[in-house]
Amino acid sequence: MNTLPTVLLRPGEADRVLAGHPWVYAGAILRLTTPAADGDLVQVKDHRQRFLGVGFFNAKSKIHVRLLASERIEVDRRFFEQRLRAALAVRQRHLPGATSFRAVNAEADFLSGLIVDKYEDVLVVQTSALGMDQRKPMIFAALQEVFAPRAIVERNEMASRKFEGLPDANGVVAGEFSGRQPIRLNGLAFEADLLGGQKTGYYLDQQVNYRLVAECVPKLERAQVLDGFCFQGGFGLHAARAGAAHVHFLDQSEETIATAKRLAGANGLAGQCSFEAVNVFDWLKAQTTVAPNEKVVPRFDLIVLDPPSFTRSRAAVPDALRGYKEIHLRALKLLKPGGVLATFCCSHHVDARLFQEVILAAAFDARRVLRRVATYAQSPDHPVLPAIPETEYLKGFAFEVAR
Ligand code: SAH
User: Fold this and answer.
1) Which of 189, 318, 358, 374 has the most crowded Cβ, counting Cβ within 10 A?
2) Do 283 and 323 fall into the same domain?
3) Number of domains composing the chain
4) Residue 295 phi, psi dihedral angles, 5° rounding
């Protein structure tokens, strides 16, 4: 182990690592004692030569070292098996009974650069760091050992791979799989498009929130529900099952809306549901545009807004905030008194405080006073480690129209 190349940090750079953050940026490094190839395991020490941990080196990435452990470990198949089992135990503890979930979420599971989603008996793997990518055979073998899946699919076409000097790579790497994978979330049927869909095939991070938001439904009488940015209709179908009188689903993708419609049928909920393939911004605008002396007639008891991240970068934040404000203003106009707005923001660059400020600004313009009745976070298979702020991204609120 002492033969590992050593990365020495500049004075003052060790604290972040000691606090549990696994990234070492180029600027934090004083020098490398012996040359290391990209993807190699290195040891990291502070400027006084005190050992901090081991991790993968990559001079091509802005993140020069991704730390894996604070002890001197071997990175072999056994290491991956142990980390996978530890991650699985977190899911079993916090999402008992779930059969589809994110089994490994990178930094949040001490495996920077590795994501594994479990869709029933099929696993989907993403490696966004060179060190992980080079060890795929070892990782796949460890996954076989821990999960015994029917198939393993690789979905490696993320923009982040380019920063690591990695090419795209997609397809079935073990077992047999084609088409779509039926999955169950909280007892409802959905499907993951593992080879061609969004992300790794489904948005798994709302699994718990589907249930929590649906808990509002019995409190509202004969609830009229709107599911905006619905994807396969996760929120709306849970609301329908909870007894909503009617749910209207909106998504701009025709294909997605067709899937949501099919799933409403498969779940025996079609009678309460209607669907529209449309841009939510346009739809809300059309529904809330009235003549100067007319008023918008509020007609919904629950509106769910779960848009994609409008901000890829910090520079895009002002535009994103305008977008968030507009949809909230219009949604609030469509909510009956006592109605609930359940709203989510998955942008890293807009935190909960800023997100709530935007909603309040919209409420001010709509002349509504809101009562906050719930706060939401990403499901626990996307663990939040406050020592690593990047692990936290999804926040949500439920507001009742108090006045
Ligand atoms: N609520 C969903 C996830 C939503 S992801 C769930 O829980 O599974 C965001 C969705 O918004 C995607 O399906 C995307 O097709 C859709 N979308 C993005 N921009 C849109 C827009 N302007 N109008 C309508 N739908 C949009």
Assistant:
1) 358
2) yes
3) 3
4) -115, 145
User: Is any ligand 1 atom within 6 A of the Cβ of residue 57?
Assistant: no
Residue 396 has a pLDDT of 98
CA distance linking residue 334 with residue 378, whole number of Å:
27
For the CA of 202, the closest atom of ligand 1 is 8
List, for the chain, all residue ranges whose pLDDT scores fall below the cut of 70: 1-2
Q: Write the CATH number for 55.
A: 2.30.130.10
Name the residue range of residue 54's domain.
6-69
State the Cα–Cα distance between residues 259 and 250, nearest whole angstrom. Answer: 12
pLDDT value, residue 200: 81
Question: 229 C-alpha to center of ligand 1: Å?
Answer: 4
Same domain for 165 and 228: no
Tell me the sheet residues that pair with 190: 183
Nearest-angstrom CA–CA distance, 90 and 104: 10
What was the pLDDT predicted at 381?
98
The pLDDT assigned to 159 comes to: 78
Task: Report the distance separating Cα 300 and Cα 53, nearest Å.
Answer: 54
Extract the tokens encoding 374. 């719930």
CATH number at residue 146: 3.30.750.80
Q: Is the CB of 202 under 6 A from ligand 1?
A: no
Ligand 1 pocket check: which of 248, 252, 376 to mutate, most ligand atoms within 8 Å of Cβ? 252
**Tokens at 322, concatenated:** 């305008």
Neighbours of 184 (CB within 10 A): 13
397: which 2 tokens?
């609120």
Residues 33 and 103 in one domain: no
Residue with tokens 């439904």: 217
Q: What is the DSSP letter of 382?
A: S
- pTM for the predicted model, two decimal places: 0.95
**Dist. CA 69–CA 54, nearest whole Å:** 6
* 346 given a catalytic annotation: yes
Q: Is 105 in the pocket of ligand 1 (CB under 6 A)?
A: no
Instruction: Identify the domain boundary among 53, 69, 85.
Output: 69
| Shared domain check, 257 and 361 | yes
The answer to whether the CB of 203 is under 6 A from ligand 1 is: yes
